[in-house]
């Protein structure tokens, strides 16, 4: 039987990302999108039973047959899961289960979310175990942490719950996430733990705070929600009205789940500002180990001459530079991310890197 080619929307929050990973494994295909029908893609009763087992294991939510029939897409099923885990969702998101080997942990950029990481994980190969952790403060009842040091400590606590005993720690992060990966690696190494890859995806050693008072709003609007709206119009709205307007338009555009609410969006905007403040106060300390800087080849956006290793040899014992195509934003987008994934895999495990020319 020939099944229709699905869409490939990877997920708009941690629940959708993890459900997509489950579907990909159960259905044996890597091109599952959040709006594709489980049964149309080849799902059947036996796989449906396996799906309920996986959902119970991941989210502690019991699904019924009626649930699966009424919610046959990832997006619809995610709404049921979110309702059942409202008080239990944590920061950890399993992007890709993989089949063994050293897991890779991705730490969040300034948005606090982990939505940019699934394409990177897929580009590394479906056998690569890949976890990501989102910032504290995005979910109801959570209070954001206010320093890079506190955030790193919290991430270590979270990651220990899934990290194999005695295994090497492999960390990476895009932009601000690279600073979090660095600080986390530094703390683990100081405690005598084995640290392998510390991947810094176009991360500078210092981040200058933006003078733009609307930076957080612009970043969320254009990079997160992918909406083109007038900033002056948005600025003129009171916070509640602004949040409702953004949610309405993002849901219409498909960049937010249908059950997203204005309170959650306000937390996302606040998260940008909390993380920017934490960055501004962070002092980068020495690290007795190696960092790998994934350096973009298109540097036209940098507005000046930066060191080849973005300054990391000043604090790390050794800084390795790996060139990847694109600029700071396009390096994680289709057309460029495929090479980034291969380069990451090569640095993590040279023996298992796919022999594909760039």
UniProtKB/TrEMBL annotation:
InterPro entries: AB_hydrolase_fold, ACP-like_sf, PKS_PP-bd, PP-bd_ACP, Ppantetheine_attach_site, TesA-like, Thioesterase
Cofactors: pantetheine 4'-phosphate
One GO CC term, this protein: cytoplasm
Statement: the UniProt record of this protein carries the keyword Phosphoprotein: yes
GO terms for biological process, alphabetical: amino acid activation for nonribosomal peptide biosynthetic process; antibiotic biosynthetic process; secondary metabolite biosynthetic process
Keyword list, A-Z: Phosphopantetheine, Phosphoprotein
Span of domain Carrier: 10-85
Presence of keyword Phosphoprotein: yes
Gene Ontology MF terms: phosphopantetheine binding
Protein name per the record: Carrier domain-containing protein
Protein's organism: Streptomyces malaysiense
């Amino acid at each position: 039987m020939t099944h229709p080619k699905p869409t490939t929307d990877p997920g708009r929050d941690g629940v959708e990302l993890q459900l997509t990973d489950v579907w990909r494994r159960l259905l044996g295909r890597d091109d599952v999108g959040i709006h594709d029908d489980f049964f149309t893609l080849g799902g059947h009763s036996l796989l449906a039973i396996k799906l309920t087992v996986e959902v119970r294991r991941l989210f502690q939510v019991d699904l019924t047959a009626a649930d699966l029939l009424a919610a046959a897409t990832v997006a619809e099923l995610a709404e049921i899961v979110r309702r059942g885990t409202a008080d239990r969702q944590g920061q950890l998101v399993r992007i890709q289960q993989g089949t063994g080997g050293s897991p890779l942990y991705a730490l969040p950029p300034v948005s606090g979310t982990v939505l940019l990481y699934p394409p990177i994980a897929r580009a590394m190969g479906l056998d690569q175990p890949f976890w990501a952790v989102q910032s504290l403060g995005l979910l109801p009842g959570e209070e954001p942490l206010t320093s890079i040091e506190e955030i790193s400590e919290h991430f270590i606590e979270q990651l220990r719950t899934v990290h194999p005993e005695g295994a090497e720690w492999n960390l990476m992060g895009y932009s601000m996430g690279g600073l979090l990966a660095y600080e986390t690696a530094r703390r683990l190494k100081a405690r005598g733990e084995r640290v392998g890859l510390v991947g810094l995806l176009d991360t500078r050693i210092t981040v200058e705070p933006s003078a733009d008072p609307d930076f957080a709003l612009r970043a969320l609007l254009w990079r997160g929600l992918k909406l083109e709206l007038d900033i002056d119009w948005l600025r003129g709205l009171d916070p509640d009205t602004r949040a409702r307007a953004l949610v309405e338009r993002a849901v219409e555009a498909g960049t937010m789940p249908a059950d997203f609410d204005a309170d959650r969006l306000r937390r996302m905007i606040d998260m940008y500002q909390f993380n920017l403040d934490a960055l501004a106060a962070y002092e980068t300390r020495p690290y007795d180990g190696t960092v790998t800087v994934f350096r973009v080849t298109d540097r036209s956006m940098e507005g000046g001459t930066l060191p080849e290793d973005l300054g990391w040899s000043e604090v790390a014992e050794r800084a390795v530079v790996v060139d990847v195509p694109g600029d700071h934003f396009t390096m994680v987008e289709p057309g460029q991310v495929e090479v980034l994934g291969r380069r990451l895999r090569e640095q993590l495990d040279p023996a298992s890197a796919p022999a594909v020319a760039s």
